[in-house]
Write a structure and sequence with these properties.
By secondary structure, the protein is an all-beta fold. The chain contains no helices and eleven strands.
Length: 114
Amino acid sequence: QVQLVESGGGLVQVGGSLRLSCAVSGTIFSFKAMAWYRQVPGNIRELVASININGNTNYADSVKGRFTISRDNAKKTMYLQMNSLKPEDTAVYYCNVQSLRIYWGKGTPVTVSS
C-alpha cells in the first residue's frame, strides 16, 4: 500500500525559510511525476511545483525563484525548499504522486506571519 507522509511545515516569519519533505512508502508502478500542491480553506488546491521522471521541474509563477523542488530516489523522498516566504504562501501543502494512480498525502500546514 502506497503512503505519502509530509513533514516540515510550521510557523515562520516573513522572509524565512522552510523545507518540506514527502516520504513515500510502498511500491509505485509506472511513476510519472511528483508534485507539491497547496490549499487555503475555501480555495481550490493549486499546483506549486512538480518534478517528472526525467527530473524536469515546473513551478507556479508565484513561487519561481523562491521555491525549489527536488527528490532523492534512494530515500524515496521529495523535498520543497521554500525561501523568502510571504504571508500569501500560508496554506496546507500536499504531496502528490502521479502514476497509474494518483496518490495524495494528508498535508502539512505552513503559516507565514507578518
